[in-house]
Amino acid sequence: MRETTAQEDLLRGIWRENPVLVQLLGLCPTLAVTGSVDNAVVMGIATFFVLLGSSVLVSTFKSIIPKEVRISAYILIIATFVTIADMVTHALVPDIWKALGPFVPLIVVNCIILGRQEAFASKNTVWRSTLDAVGMGSGFMVAMLIMGSVREIIGNGSWFGIPLFGGHYQPWIIMILPPGGFFTLGFVLLAMGWKKGREAEAVRPRRWPHGVTTEVGGPV
Amino acid sequence: MSEQELPMAGDAQEPSGNAAGEGPPPAPRQIEASSVRLVTTLSVAGALAGMAIVVAFQYTKPRIDANAARELAAAVTEVLGGAKTYKTIYLEDGKFTAEPRDTAGLDKVYVGYDPNGQPVGVAMEAAEPGFQDIIDLIFGYDPAKGDVIGMKVLHNLETPGLGARIATDSSFVDQFNDVSTPLIGVKEGQGKGGHNEVVMITGSTISSRAVIKIINDRLTAIQKPVDAYWSTIAGTSSTGQQSATTSAGRTTSTSVAPVAAGAVPSPGGGEL
Amino acid sequence: MRDLFWIFVSSMLVNNFTLVLFLGLCPFLGVSAKVATAVRMGMADIFVMVITSVTVSALNAWVLPHAPYLKIIAFIVVIASLVQIVEMVIRKVSPTLFRELGIYLPLITTNCAILGLALLQTSKGYGFTEGLVYAVGSGLGLTLALVLMASIRETVELASVPSIARNMGLVLIIAGSLSLAFMGFAGLFSS
Prior knowledge:
The complex is a heterotrimer of chains A (about 220), B (about 270) and C (about 190). By secondary structure, chain A is an all-alpha fold. Chain A is about 60% helix and about 0% strand. In chain A, a hairpin with a 2-residue loop joins strand 1 and strand 2 (about 160-165). Chain C has one domain. Chain C is built from eight helices and no strands. The interface of B and C includes residues 127, 206 and 217 of B.
């Protein structure tokens, strides 16, 4: 793996290596709590806090944590921050805390967080790990915002609870129901695949017949 | 699997470890000195984690409790019309009492009092499966008339825009402000004008019927002891019964019943 | 009120862990390419869930009333240890399965379905029996979702789909359709 610059550490998580949209990590909360932007943002902030706190602690103490128990130590650190995040959310925004259900405590098993500790914070300086955590946390936030906005605007005709379309809009309720979560992320990924395909084509134009035929693929 | 990946992770770390001046030795040394060091590290980490959590707990607990108490007080007030304070009573040995031996695991309801200290009704929580999942609600019951005098859905996961209207559709919710028991659900336009009829939401019949069933079932189960308790307080008027202001009283109702606020142990405090 | 049959049906179909509650998506998307693997993954899940449920009942009864703030740490520590044991057993009993499940076996620790079960069982106030029924129902629901998904993916494998859909996009849209179908179970067993 080549060396990265500080700027890359910060920026790559936001889009190019977005933990949710590109790496497909932490999908459970991305699908489960994005029925409204409010919930999505609170979830994003809580996850950001846990990721940042854990990364700073893990990178600070990386040299004194024995390798054999490092995963247990990481989980302990993460679980502590999650417990604090859970209690603070409960105290400050009880309604949203209730709506998020088990998903605030479930941050503890969010692959993004343990993944960043193992892949980055345990090998890099505190400063770089902080940048990385901020970048990845923001990337998670971006994904939550995209998902939450699409679902709430289409599914409820509002954004942050503010009605957008007046009374004439008939909301597509399905979008804020569970299937809507899968569909939204599915279409976001299709769009990203399409964009990637176009970029690749721009580099090396080619004609390739498969993928155009629809007689079998159609009903799928 | 993860064990097999360890060496790789270690290899990757080595260069930076070298730079820090403590690179080469750790690998063998760690394996030998492990057990003591592992236990020590995890114990220290555990102790620190515990401390951090307890500190956070101390800071957030009062706020969480206050929120819960405020929410409950608001719900009780809403379903009991004019109630200003309420008192928690517990079902012990088939009878309701304000001071059970131990509150843990006991069924409880809330008796609401108006500003003059007159009991206005009993609020009770109930929950049963609805269309998607459990519906939690609280409703007010007036034992004097045998009527339901208010209903509020506390938590539901019914379909937004359809079943979830049991919580938000005022034309449905308001029907519970004055209706005789046992309730009967009727479809729109098919009512016979009875005082115990509730018109169900078109397109959300299952959720509507569930709400009605929840209230009926709850009343069937505890109407007798509630009525019995009511008859003991209804005649006593303002003799100081209401002075047992409850957990809500900590924030809102001290002005209403200052008489003996300290004389009766607060049920809210007793629960902790 | 807490009718065991309702708990079972609700956790398996109406509130299916994967398709409705979005718990355990990693294995659902990652280990659902082959039916045979999906079945075994599901079995492992049911097994771990039952153990988890029993443990959580014990924790809820004797430990957590005294230290409610340790809930998350207690659950994660106990569950992680349990999964380690299961991992060792599976490594010993079926190396093939162990190889096939790849990184997902260690990741059962960080599987939201397991911790989710622990948290939901607690927040719903289920005791020992109810918790057990809930765990079996949820585990079966998870397996059902996995197997359905794997069957569809095995079929789609040979289909010619647009190249942009050759990533997770297609899988997620299939999942959405399945989720849509599972919405039909709502209200099935209510009053």
